[in-house]
Amino acid sequence: MEYERFKNLVMRFVFTKNITIRKFINFCLITFQYRITKNSFVIGYPIELVIDPVNICNLHCPLCPTGQGRMERSKGKMSFDNFRKVIDELGTYLYEVDLHNWGEPLLNEEIYAMISYAHKRNIKVNLSTNLNFFDEDKAKKLVESGLDHLIVSLDGASQETYRQYRVGGDFDNVIKGIKSIIHIKKEQNKTFPVLTWQFLVMAQNEREISEAEQMANDLGVDKFELFPIHSDMGRELFLNREERMEIARKWLPQDDKYNSYTLKRNKTNPNTCSFLWFQSIINWNGSISPCCSVYPEIYDFGNIFDSNFKNIWNNAKYKASRKMVRQKRVHDNDMKTVCANCINNEFIQMD
């Protein structure tokens, strides 16, 4: 399992058009520290960022803290100027940027300028959207922005099924948006963005998987991907396995091959976490989270707009977290960070 993760890293960050000599050296340096020395102090910079352009959403998905209306994180939109500051500091080392996390990215009017700016810095840009806040003009701007990968969250093959989880969503409007993007790509003879239909499998929609996949093929979507539903995304780090499963119970599919908890019984949990060495999360207001599963802002590690990333990347919280992950144990005299929950709740397997 560890070998597979490493192989995927190599395929994504070595055999790619976005590679440069400086990026490759930085990648090798971080890889050596992660796999061999397990440094708590990392010499080098992350090779991938999640930059959340906005943490507001137009839907109300029941297992998402944004959809639930929870307020443990301040709400807002990142300005293009602040986005540019992040890219100007870290762009030399970045292979990829994911422009999504806790909100609907297309609600930020400057998202197209952000994509274009990162694209011009030779950074692969990925964006995930519910595609409800969309029209033909936005489709054209998205295709022309330089976006590499567009993920459309569409969990069903009908409005009746889709709206059960994507509360407030319009299935037909999403399909219309997909058609617009594909039409404009063909019209402009472009292969990008690669378009993925992402189908979150749950009890309410598993009967429509085949129909949705056929629809995706008929539309000309590039990829159709299935993902198992888990639990409350804003709370799962703080819950044990039984608590997580109880929250997700009504959503869990009957087919075991799509049930994330059945899958976990048949697979060894990850024995480590590479996130603290290779990646970082920058929220709309510059607050830095250790990973994309940390919702409450009180657990963040610093703010890039109050300092610079280099100072935060190796501050006391980051170093303490890397030490815990490296040892896979939480000692009484350790500085406690949110990463301790991953060990205590078995997201990281203890020795």
How would you describe the overall organization of this protein?
This protein is of the alpha/beta class. It has 15 helices and nine strands. The chain is globular, with a radius of gyration of 20 Å. The longest helix is centred in the N-terminal third of the chain and has 17 residues, at about 20-35. The relative contact order is 0.12. The protein has a nine-stranded mixed β-sheet. α4 packs parallel to α5 and α6 packs across α8. The model has no long low-confidence stretch (mean pLDDT about 90). A hairpin with a 4-residue loop joins β7 and β8 (about 285-290).
Provide a short characterization of the protein structure.
With 351 residues, the protein is α/β, with parallel strands linked by helices. Helix content is 40%, strand content 12%.
List the helices and strands and how they pair.
Elements: H1 2-13, H2 21-37, E1 48-51, H3 65-68, H4 80-90, E2 96-98, H5 111-120, E3 124-129, H6 136-144, E4 149-153, H7 159-165, H8 171-187, E5 194-201, H9 209-219, E6 223-228, H10 241-248, H11 260-266, H12 275-278, E7 279-282, E8 287-289, E9 302-303, H13 309-313, H14 316-327, H15 340-344
Parallel strand pairs: 1-2, 1-7, 2-3, 3-4, 4-5, 5-6
Antiparallel strand pairs: 7-8, 8-9
Helix pairs in contact: 4-5, 6-8
